[in-house]
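I'll show a typical protein example:
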Amino acid sequence: MKKEYFKRIFFDIFSAMFSWLLFFYYRKTEIENYDFNLTWTLIIGTISVTTFWIALYTISGNYIDVRRVSRLNEFLKTLLQSVIGCLLLFFFLIIDDFENYSNHFLYYKSIIALFIFHFSLTYLFRFRVAENAIKKIKNGVVKFNTLLIGDSDSIVESYNVMKKISKTTGNHIVGYLEYSNKSLSNFELNKLGSINNLNDVLNSFQIEEVILNPKKNDLESNINMINDLIYNDIITKIPSDVKDLISGKIKMQSFFDTPYIEIKQIKMLHFESFLKRFLDLLISASALILLSPLLVFISIVVKLSSEGPIFYFQERLGINSKPFRIIKFRSMKINAEVHGPLLSSKDDQRITKWGKIMRKFRLDELPQFYNVLIGEMSLIGPRPERKYFAEQIIAKAPQYKLVYKVKPGITSWGMVKFGYAENVEEMIKRLRYDLIYLENLSLISDFKVFILTIIIILQGRGK
């Protein structure tokens, strides 16, 4: 794994450096009619340009799970990255170097040359690396532990199909789970446990992929199982002829090499994730600085309006169910939960007069920009809950665990469309909106939630 990782980086560095030097030589000798000289300026420029390319590849997710490769995907990815990267280099570095601005043909000739040199060299090496990786899969050097789930007939059928195509997909079938917990007689595979302890099986046998044959006429059970697999980051595939069983409930993407359709995972594109974190840092840091006078004012009023500390800290569950301490301006009287955890309600007597004003405009949430700044939260994401209430929600709505796939947020689609919840039943109703957000995870969705939240704050429609 590490060898493949460093091999990819090495060849990307080499192709970026060599293609830039070729371009510079071509530009000086063929376009500008100068002699080519290897200067310190060129060396420093080459190192800087190479760093730019590696940064672009990194934020594009090139070096994540390097075992799973496709020649077509490598081609399309290299093409897109080369176009974007060459345009950025041309407009930020190259265009101002031309002495003759009137000759637009030089611009076109230059950028085309840069693209051809970079794309050709980069894809040549990536093609060879991909070929080598595919060869390792075919030779059984690289394997992906795979589990079959279904009834007796579908397990046997899936196994026979996967045996024929395993050399091209790398799937190593380690065993099966049968819905009725039967053990199949005279069968090559071992039964690995019970459907009821699916999570234990996935962890014990380091399962990476599951071939799932959904239960017939049991939509809820199918959805719950798929949610469990998504939660555990398992690549899940179902036979293409049963996709209608869960159509409209689970997003799917094509898996062209096999007669199976792959269930779409809950994750942003790597570039979007990088940009989302960058925006979180930028906006939260800016907010804490620009709003500092308001934060000081609110702190003074909180202190003067009621007894108790200015800030209220409470343990919540974040990404991967990891506990963290959320920070808010205190809006309730001290010892508000002396009799145990309670959710706030519309006419809650525990809320101070100033607390009601803060909640109306969601000013009590402002300190959470600090949680965002240190990476515990994001600006946009499902609201984090306490373990006490989260366990009650999961007992009634197991799909709630999917919110742990992303960082919790200061605001969310659930908060925009539903608002604060006063009991577990309302939390479950709000969960529907958060699941819609997860199914459509993207920066565009985040931007929409952000704008709508601003409107709600300005209108004072919070609780």
User: Anything to note?
Assistant: The radius of gyration is 28 Å.
